[in-house]
């Protein structure tokens, strides 16, 4: 069974689950801009270490455009989410924002030719419904 | 004494329907941007990982933040200071960076249409953590939500 992706995906889920709690504790004293600032400082330090140790290098090759676009998208997403939360109620913003896997599903079928079956689509819908319920239920 | 017509117009409160539409648009527009950008992020990352390593993608995220951080500092939106909460902010940054690295590693070996929906289930984990570490109560409705998330993940991972 080729499932190398399961462990890093679990690490991601646990790290992001923990991030929600830790960010809440930080936001008790700081603003969201301060959290972006510290994330930025963290990324810059990690990149410096990776460049020094030769794990990566600055070069424009095939795929660099997608990598730059990915970086831009994740930063824009973060800013948009904070902007939405500062203008609307979390009870409305979070359920709508939880729908992003559906966009991935469509784009993965179009650009990566991945098999997007009805069953997988149902699975995504169930996850989105569960996340929405977890977030908005009291 | 009656007010002049233009003054009374200025003082008249905005119609509730118009105000409601404006208030909806204020949060809906950035939320749609979030859904589209984060939805596309999994696919563009996968396309990049066909040619590059996850370390290269972190490099580009670092370059992005190296542009954003000076802008935040120059605009005065935030400043580097060690106050109460800074420790949690640093830990948040470490968790966010660790999470992104893990996601890139996962995307380099699996399908985006599987990994992104499963990775989106982290609010259920946050709920369990908040019950464990912040002693928050898990209501029946939220417990149902966690079960739905688990069920959805099982469907995505096991059924073809």
Structure description:
The complex is a heterodimer of chains A (138) and B (160). Chain A is an all-alpha fold. In chain A, 76% of the residues lie in helices and 0% in strands. Chain A is built from 6 helices and no strands. In chain A, α4 packs antiparallel against α6 (118-136). Chain A is globular. The mean pLDDT of chain A is 85. Chain B has 160 residues and is mainly α. Chain B has helices at 5-11, 16-49, 54-75, 86-107, 112-119, 122-133, 140-158. The radius of gyration of chain B is 23 Å and the shape is globular. The termini of chain B are far apart. The model of chain B is unreliable at 1-9 (pLDDT under 50).
Fold blueprint:
The complex is a heterodimer of chains A (138) and B (160).
Chain A: H1 6-26, H2 32-52, H3 64-87, H4 90-97, H5 100-111, H6 118-136
Chain B: H1 5-11, H2 16-49, H3 54-75, H4 86-107, H5 112-119, H6 122-133, H7 140-158
Using brief descriptors, characterize the structure shown.
heterodimer; A: 138 residues; mainly alpha; 76% helix; globular; B: 160 residues; 7 helices; 78% helix; disordered N terminus
Q: Count all strands of chain B and give the number.
A: 0
N-to-C order of helices and strands of chain B: HHHHHHH
User: What is the overall shape of chain B?
Assistant: globular
Q: Could you tell me how far the N terminus lies from the C terminus of chain B, measured between alpha carbons in angstroms? A: 76 Å
Please, what is the average pLDDT of chain B? Answer: 82
How many distinct helices of chain A? 6
Please compute the radius of gyration of chain B using only Cα atoms: 23 Å
Please tally the β strands of chain A and state the result: 0
Sheet/helix structural class of chain B: mainly alpha
Structural class of chain A: mainly alpha
Largest sheet of chain A at a glance? Answer: none
> Can you summarize the main beta sheet of chain B?
none
Helix content of chain A: over 70%
The share of residues in helices of chain B is over 70%
